[in-house]
Amino acid sequence: MKQGIRRSLYGMVALSAGVVLTACSTTASSTASSGSATSGLSSSATIFAAASLTNVAEDLAEAFKEYNPDAELIFNFAGSSALVRQISEGAPSDLFISADTANMDDALALPEFADSRSEVITTNKLVLVTADGNPGEISELADVSDSLVAICAPEVPCGTITHEALDYAHIELGTSTEEANVADVATKISTGAVDAGFVYQTDAQSLAQTQDNTVIELEGIDANDYPMALTTSGNSNEVAQAFADFLTSDRAKNILASYGFGTV
Q1: What's the predicted TM-score (pTM) here?
Q2: What is the pLDDT of residues 193-209, one digit of tens each?
Q3: Which biological process, per GO, is one annotated for this protein (predicted)?
């Protein structure tokens, strides 16, 4: 196992992508932006993050690590709605990053977020991506009616937006497979288990590193915001507060942009 990474202790199955990244923090976003080191923190924080942030999280943690090498970030990745449910059921979390505002609104209504406010840190946009080599010969959105397509469950942001795009274009899916989150859809695409899938542009960028995928832009939808909010425990956790500050820094924004995320 890679040094500095271990499994989370909570919900091993639910947290199949949940890992602990030995990370760091800075006490102010201005410090993170400038790149000057601090004396460091020596505690930990649990970050519940949308599945679409899985790929970028390690780079964010490594950059964060430069300022506080003794601090630890425990990541739990899942669909945003699943994360809200886990928090409502008592799962320990210090910072929640959602892939949309709707699930963040649901989170802020929980007692675990009393007196908390959300802040948008980045954006992303849904696209249709074919499997390697485009075996289904998909050239436009209408072709999904005759193809095997992977989509997210309707309660998670990528699923909600998928149906918005289909409704806008007055297109019905043919044969589809429904996945728990966008990371699972991306896996279906990468393994060739489906002809295409609806994922974010960040996933499309990641797939393109090793595959020849066709990317089809979707009309009638906007880029979705990614808000973050500290829980009540996070509001008293220096590492969580510092990481939240870091996510608004120029350093973090540049890392997010390198993965295809939008800037705010």
Answers
A1: 0.85
A2: 999 999 999 999 999 99
A3: molybdate ion transport
